[in-house]
Task: structure prediction
Amino acid sequence: MKQGRKKSNTGQQKAANFVIQGSILAMAGILVRIIGMLYRMPLNDIIGKQGNGYYTSAYNVYNILLILSSYSMPVAVSKMISSRLARGEYKNCRRILKTGLIYATIAGGIAAAVLWFGADAFAEMIKTPFSRYALKTLAPTIWIMAYLGVLRGYFQGTGTMVPTAVSQILEQIVNAVVSVVAAGLLFNVGVSMNAAQGAEDYSYALGAAGGTIGTGAGALTALIFFMILTATKGRSAVGSSGDRREDRGRVESYGRLFYILTVTVVPIVVSSGIYNCSNVIDNYLFGQGMDKLGYSAAAIAIFWGALGQYQLLFNIPVAVSNSLSSSLIPSLTRAVSSGNREQTLERIATSIRFSLLIAIPAAVGITVLAEPVCNLLFISEDNSLLIRLSMVGSLAVVFYSLSTVTNAILQGLNRMDAPIRHAVAALVIHVAVLELFLKVLKMGIYSVVFANIIFALVMCLLNARTIEVVAGYDQEYKKSFLLPTVCALLMGAAAYGVYRGVELILPSSLMRGRLGMALVVLPAVAAAIVVYGVLLVKTGAVNEKELKGMPMGTKLVRILKKVRLL
Result:
């Protein structure tokens, strides 16, 4: 009996650790996105929607090359490390790190060269020629990110997300400071070039390039942090050299490990590339379509800049799913490797529920508070288009969050081919919808938003079906979908009521500037958090055991019991 109880407790501890590690990374992801949103306010004030269009266009191209070279490295390395740790092969883990760094040198270097020398061609292709400056400044960052991806994957594979979380926060802080300073300096240089050449675009283009310089500075800071951490803690993370357990299994050659890494990386690269290349395809098709309709390059950049601002809003809750996925893959891989079906199903269910508990209220919140939030973030311009985009496209939060998590589940289940097939099918439908809305219905930038929602929805449906077949997982709907939706709708009504109430009470003299908008937004957001949290507990969408499995959950349970909510 004691032994059975001990095994049960161990399983519960591992499950709780998975949630805690995912929560740590999720909270860091939210903080990173908040910092990103805050620094984009002064950055946007400097470069405007046109500069933001160049900035967003450059990032779309950069992201594809990043995916092809190094985006998959944390997932691949963590997957390889976690499976060998489950078998006690500690020496092989350290050999994987060396193999990954060699791979990063080759892949990162090639991608950086392609972006640097191909910047002009890429810029012309997406009909924003002045984005070439931002593209060139992003080229070195790809190489840095390749090394950073390997080191993050190494520590994630050991089951700790803290180094990745800390590095992301450091990276974003440096990014924020350098981006704003560099954008301001280079924007002024561009103003001088405009005056000298009788042009108008150089200030926006160089300002956008200044913003992308911050990305490289932040990545370099995170890399230095990991280099120090690896030098001091790297070996102990997977067992010391004197550990007898290191002799388990045969030592794998570097050639074999390089082959396994490549075989692991390629499916992730292909699926991630197809999944994320929709932005570049959208950029290309939208630019070409609007160009044929007679719109200028500057007008196209302004539309695309508004889309970039909209994406900034919905990327915050989606970051939770990205962070949860980073924690899920090594954890799920270990469960699958050990043949523990109960733990496998539990982690699938937990990851889906946790993702939806954040995504559903976020979508509702973006819808009801679109106007005050957009005016708070981008107060120096006319935000009517951005507000409409945010309200129309808020549903994308739910589908992108869920598709991100289900992709990670399939990768953790070793079904690396499934996300590729699903992404191809979703992309074909996505392109057809985009072309229909853009060229036939002439819906402009809204075409991109609707096409993205359809893309993510198709991914969700296909992924869910495959998970059901492969893992024998039966999706629970009441606590995962129904109750969070009901709670979120009531939360949205409360938040909107507080927003309108504060707006009526405050004199118009206090409603000017960012401080005035903050006085409207913050009480509404605070009310939304409290109402949603209380409703989750009272409706049983979250129980005491699940709360205790979250960071600071035990303390939260005590507070809820004191106020008689539990």
About this structure: Residues 1-16, 240-247 have pLDDT under 50 and may be disordered. Residues 190 and 231 are 42 Å apart (CA to CA).
